[in-house]
């Protein structure tokens, strides 16, 4: 199944679920104020072109659409994404998981979490061995989780730093890049 949504800044308006991308494109084609770009791979709506009220009729369904659902005079992006039907899959469900602002394929989540936790533990051990008090904070914030010491560097536990840590010759070499 595919979920169609209108993206209005940080707000996402879910339109509904479709069996195929082709069905989504059929539905979009009946909305007169939607613009398609690049061989129908990108779709947008201009706020100024959305009427006060419209009924979008497609295959017997009617979707109410109003400019009053959106926040202002700008472009609304139209996007869709695959959503797995859980009962139809054995093993890891296809799709993506959001981890502190970054998207990971579900099949990569376990490995990434293990690696980031190993990095975090190694950093805590390193600083503790050097007589420093370690602080771990930021989980769930926009900046994301980080590790620091009193007067020391702030090291974000993000994909770029996890990758750099994995490639570093040693924990000392990794930490030195933050000094």
Please explain how this structure is put together.
The structure is a single chain. With 179 residues, the chain is an alpha+beta fold. The protein folds into two domains: 2-83, no CATH class; 102-176, no CATH class. The protein is built from four helices and twelve strands; from the N terminus they run E-E-H-E-E-E-E-E-E-E-H-E-E-E-H-H. A five-stranded antiparallel β-sheet has the order 2-1-7-4-3, covered by helices on one side. A hairpin with a 2-residue loop joins strand 8 (96-99) and strand 9 (102-105).
Order of helices and strands: EEHEEEEEEEHEEEHH
Mean pLDDT rating: 92
Distance between the termini: 48 Å
Number of domains: 2
Overall strand count: 12
The main β sheet shows up as:
5 strands, antiparallel
Please give the radius of gyration in angstroms.
23 Å
Strand order of the largest sheet: 2-1-7-4-3
Point out poorly predicted stretches.
none
Structure annotation, total helices: 4
Helix content: 25-40%
* Shape descriptor: elongated
Structural class of the helices, strands and pairings? alpha+beta
> What share of residues are in beta strands?
25-35%
């Amino acid at each position: 199944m595919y979920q169609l949504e209108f993206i209005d800044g940080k707000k996402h308006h879910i339109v509904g679920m479709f069996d195929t991308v082709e069905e989504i494109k059929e539905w979009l084609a009946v909305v007169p104020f939607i613009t398609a770009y690049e061989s129908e791979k990108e779709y947008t709506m201009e706020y100024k072109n959305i009427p006060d009220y419209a009924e979008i009729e497609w295959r017997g369904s009617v979707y109410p659409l109003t400019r009053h659902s959106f926040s202002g005079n700008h472009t609304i992006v139209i996007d869709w994404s695959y959503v797995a039907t859980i009962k139809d899959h054995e093993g890891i469900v296809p799709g993506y998981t959001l981890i502190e602002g970054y998207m990971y394929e579900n099949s990569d989540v376990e490995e990434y979490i293990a690696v980031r936790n190993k990095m975090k533990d190694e950093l805590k051990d390193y600083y503790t061995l050097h007589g420093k008090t370690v602080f771990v904070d930021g989980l769930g914030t926009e900046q994301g989780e980080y590790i620091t010491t009193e007067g020391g560097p702030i090291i974000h536990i993000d994909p770029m730093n996890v990758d750099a840590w994995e490639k570093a010759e040693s924990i000392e070499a990794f930490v030195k890049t933050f000094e």
